[in-house]
Design a protein that fits this description.
CATH superfamily of the largest domain: Na+/H+ antiporter like domain
Order of helices and strands: EHHEEHHHHHHHHHHHEHHHHH
Low-confidence stretches: 1-11, 437-452
Radius of gyration: 23 Å
Strand order of the largest sheet: 1-4
Largest sheet: 2 strands, parallel
Helix content: 55-70%
Shape: globular
Distance between the termini: 28 Å
Number of strands: 4
């Protein structure tokens, strides 16, 4: 009797169910980001209230502009800059860990698997940038803000999903997370290349030397202990800040230096969490629950008066940001995904349809943390920066509302898929779907959709 042919269709499927290990990592990461997203939303609301309430706006501005630090080290900064250049480095440190993990052990290590989120993310960055340029070229606006609508804020997006109670299946969540990671990489490169000026080469050389020392201690000498790396990390950050390169780049660099695979030379098994995973598990709550909300508290406080809101649709810079986030993101991400499927002759998973992809693409139009940071780097005059920040909020809100409507329509379907993924009828803490390794016994995707 001939053995059944192995099912190879999954290799030609887009948004197929991730592996059990990948789903566990995904659940842990997104759980923290979802809680952080809720805190981020609250911080943004508080910032808007403080900036627009007559009795609070003066106090808010005085706190935001209050300076403190060590002048001799070039670190006498305002509270707002400590939040954006200092505390936000924790967020970029986690982004660096995520990026390296994806490149070494995650979705991006396999070129065939990585093609979809990379193409979607690149198109999702290029199209919004192009959309921004159109009104600014026509109306003589400032072109240097082209990068502002490029970013996707995963925490804000997940916070929105938590508010409306939508259960995206694991495949779409994995795509959204990987898309955001590639998006962050693009933002990091843009900040490093296009928003760096007046380099202090001695400070930069010191920062690079510090990173080399960090690598030697961590990789070659296997030195452990936070009391070694925290002071070293602070020194690297201070040198990077004084070099003229945006200080958050130091966080990315240190995150990418951590080992993301188990140390087999010391007897660690493949199932043992790596140093990067352990550090990320500890630092991610600090990033999602403190660093990013604190940045939002001092960056999102913009005027929402009638003139300020109307400027978002009249001023070319602000209009370009609104259109880039709301229209450019969905066109770029959806178009990139469709082109990737078309040219690779891949097919969507039987559980999903193209409207599901459109909903996630619309969700990618929520740009907040990195977009606000880029707006501060791109524009020098306070008026334009204020209007562009208001445009970021408007574009993100419009994207969130439309995405919620698109995804909520399919929520009953998503809930059924989620229940199938997490079903554990034998109570052994292992989802039943991960135990179906026999091709004869494994139900088809169509049967899983019907819950059989």
């Amino acid at each position: 009797m001939n053995s059944p042919e192995p099912d190879t269709s999954s290799s030609r499927k887009l948004f197929a169910l991730p592996s059990a290990k990948e789903r566990r990592f995904l659940a842990d990461a997104l759980r923290t980001e979802t809680v952080g997203g809720m805190v981020l939303l609250l911080a943004a609301v508080i910032a808007l209230i403080c900036a627009n309430a007559p009795t609070l706006s003066g106090w808010y501005e005085s706190v935001r502009s209050f300076h403190f630090g060590i002048s001799a080290l070039g670190l006498d900064l305002s509270v707002e800059h400590w939040a954006s250049d200092g505390i936000l480095t924790v967020f970029f440190f986690v982004a660096g860990i995520e990026l390296k993990r994806e490149l070494v052990a995650g979705e991006l290590r396999n070129p065939a698997t990585a093609a979809l989120p990379i193409v979607a993310a690149l198109c999702g960055m290029a199209v919004p940038a192009a959309v921004y340029l159109i009104p600014n070229l026509l109306a003589g606006g400032q072109l240097q803000g082209w990068a502002v609508p490029m970013a996707t804020d995963i925490a804000f997006a997940l916070g929105v999903l938590a508010v409306i109670g939508t259960n995206l299946p694991s495949a779409l969540r994995a795509f959204l997370l990987t898309l955001a990671i590639v998006d962050d990489l693009g933002g990091i490169l843009v900040i490093a290349v296009f928003y760096t000026s007046g380099l202090n080469w001695w400070a930069l050389a010191g920062a690079v030397a510090g990173l080399i020392l960090f690598r030697v201690l961590h990789i070659d000498l296997r030195v452990r202990g936070w009391y070694v790396y925290v002071p070293l990390g602070l020194a690297i950050w201070a040198l990077m800040y004084n070099s003229g390169v945006h200080a958050t780049i130091s966080g990315v660099a240190m995150g990418m230096l951590l080992r993301v695979l188990p140390d087999t030379e010391r007897g660690e098994s493949e199932e043992t969490p790596s140093v990067a995973e352990r550090v990320e598990h500890l630092v991610r709550p600090l990033s999602a629950g403190f660093a990013v909300p604190l940045f939002a508290l001092f960056a999102a406080g913009v005027s929402l008066s009638g003139p300020a809101l109307s400027a978002a649709f009249r001023q070319p810079e602000a209009l370009g940001v609104v259109l880039g986030l709301f229209a450019g993101k969905i066109v770029g991400v959806f178009g990139g995904t469709y082109l990737a499927a078309r040219f690779t002759r891949a097919q969507l998973s039987d559980d999903l349809t193209w409207p599901d992809v459109a909903g996630v693409a619309m969700l990618a139009g929520i740009g907040f943390t990195v977009s606000l940071l880029m707006s501060e780097l791109a524009f020098t005059d306070a008026g334009t920066t204020e209007h562009v920040k208001a445009a970021i909020l408007i574009g993100s809100l419009l994207s969130a509302v439309v995405a919620c409507i698109m995804l909520k329509v399919r929520d009953s379907k998503y809930r059924a898929l989620w229940e199938i993924e997490s079903r554990d009828e034998d109570g052994d803490s292992v989802p039943d779907i991960d135990q179906e390794t026999d091709p004869v016994r494994r139900p088809t995707e169509a049967a899983r959709r019907q819950g059989r």
